[in-house]
Amino acid sequence: MEPQEIREGYLVKKGTVLNSWSAVWVVLSEDGLDYYKKKTDHSPKGMIPLKGATLISPCQDFNKRTLVFKITTERKQDHFFQASHMEERELWVKDIRRLLSCLNNGKKFARKSTRRSIRLPETVNLAELYALMKDQDDGVKELKLEQDNQIFNHCFTGTGATVIEWLISKGKARNRPEALMLATGLLTEGFLQPADDLSKEGAEGGEQTTFLDQTKALYYFTDSGFFCEGYSSDEDVLLKDEFRGNIIKQGCLLKQGHKRKNWKVRKFILRDDPAYMHYYDPSKGDDPLGSIHLRGAVVTAVEYVPDAKKYDVDGNLFEIITSDETHYFLQAATSEERKEWIKAIQTVSKSGK
């Protein structure tokens, strides 16, 4: 019987022999983690057994690399992975941590057990509750907060006039313990994410995820434009106009080059107002390789790409045609992911500057 696949996607991995970092396709299953040079490859480049392994996140072994987590196998071999954005890392870490616990306790991996473990009633619809919390007029307000020499954008606190109070004031919970149970459910199921070290410690410190009813514990909506920045000792530098928009969506896609027509993994960040999509080499720094101005652009799903080699194409293709008629061909990992990108780009191209 084939082991159940738990999560798959692009991550950047540090080489085990050389110190180079490269994007790989990673598949997490019930018996371990496999990584491939390409998503279309049939044989993995490497296999990491997870029974008896340990996980460290965030891993701060590399000064200029953020969003890294480390897996150390039972035989003391270290493997370093880097996600493209914070939400992505937290989702991988959450599943790996839970799988390690299941493997070490002889249990079968299951995500749904968390609802029972915090005694959340089956009648509670967390997705509906999340949508209400995100309502711009009547929901939880996203703030810009300063704490510990850092600026947290698009986030909110666990207590004060935010999550716990909102749940009680809107009649979603009768008291603080009930509100705390709901908030923990939202955090456990991935609707909310911990933003700072204190909230991350609560989320990851024990066997169960814990939402902290504290003013210094910061959280954010999973699909928000959350980002964290440190204070700069230099004079503030104005961002280019095209970087000013809120982050609408981010993640890795395959992009076809304009000259050589080969496909490479690129990290994309979609922003609105002004409407831009920047792309980066996920294994290198924060400077973009290029940008796509989306105002007036057309984006469509396609089944064929000119000059593409068959073995490089795995379906889920879409094309962006900008207002100056530049064509970009991209591949998503799944059909659902392709739909999400197309919808987000279409929205931004119509509303952004």
TrEMBL record:
Domain PH: 4-101, 246-350
All residue ranges annotated as the DEP domain in the record: 159-223
The UniProt record lists the keyword ATP-binding: no
Any Gene Ontology biological process: intracellular signal transduction
Transmembrane parts of this sequence: none
PANTHER family linked to this entry: PLECKSTRIN
This protein's name: Pleckstrin
Organism: Poecilia formosa
